[in-house]
C-alpha cells in the first residue's frame, strides 16, 4: 500500500446537524468545486446533549442565517447524524465550513447514539468573531434542508422549529422515562414526586431489564421491551441534575458512570416520543423476562 493510500484510509467521525444532513446539498457543493463527494459516509443517527441549535450567523452563500450549536443547560439536545470522513473529505469539509475564513471552526464533542453508546466526534461551530448578537432568520429553503434531513431519519424536528421561532423558548427535551425504583410505588419515587413533575402515562422502550441488586438496569436490546412510566418536567435541568446524582452518572466524558443518561425512543399510547432515560453501564444482573420491575418477584 502506498503512503497516499494509507493516509486516505484514515477516518474521522463527524457529527452533522445542519445542511450536511442533505447529501444532495453536499454533492452539489462538491461538484461546484470539481470535488468528489463520496467520502462523506453515513454511519448512524445520534444526539448531542447539553447543546442547542442557534441562528446568529449570516451566511452570504445561504442568503440568511446558518445553523450553529451552543452549549446549553441540561435537557437541551441537538439531533444529527454521524458520518465518516477520509482525510480528503475532511479537508473538503473544512473548506465548505469556511475554517480558513474563520466562519466555522472544528470542535470535539460527545454524542449519544440511538442505542446508548457515547462517541467522541468532530463537529463545526461558528467562530466567535462571526457571531452576531441577534437572531438571523434562515431562508425557508435552508431550514427545509435540515428538516428533511431529520425527518427522513425519524429524528425530532421540534428543536429546529424552536430555534427558528425565537419567541418560542421551549427548546428542551422535558420528558423522562423511568423503569425502576423511580416509578410510582417504588422506593425512590419521592425523588420525582413534585408538583412540577407530571405523570404522562405508562410506556415502553427497547431493552432488557436486569435485576442488579435492589435496583434494575436497562441494557439496550432491539428485540425486547422494558416497561415504565413517562413524566414531564417543568424544570428538566434541575430534575436531570438530581437524577444524575441518584443514578451515578458523572458526565459523557467519563467512562466510570454506573448509568449513562441517554435519549430513548419510547412508545406511549401507541405513539413514539423521545425521552431521557438511564442506561445501565455494566453487564451484571439477572434478566427480568417480563421487562417490568414491578414483576421482579
Care to describe what's here?
It is a single chain. 19% of the residues lie in helices and 39% in strands. It is α+β, with helices and mostly antiparallel strands and 297 residues long. The strands form four sheets. A five-stranded antiparallel sheet has the order 1-5-2-6-7. A hairpin with a 4-residue loop joins strand 10 and strand 11 (216-219). The longest helix is centred in the middle third of the chain and has 12 residues, at 140-151.
Question: What is the strand and helix layout of this fold?
Answer:
Blueprint: H1 3-8, E1 11-16, H2 23-32, E2 40-49, E3 51-59, E4 64-71, E5 77-86, H3 87-96, E6 104-113, E7 118-126, H4 140-151, H5 158-163, E8 175-178, E9 197-206, E10 208-211, E11 216-219, E12 225-233, H6 236-247, E13 259-268, E14 271-280, E15 286-287
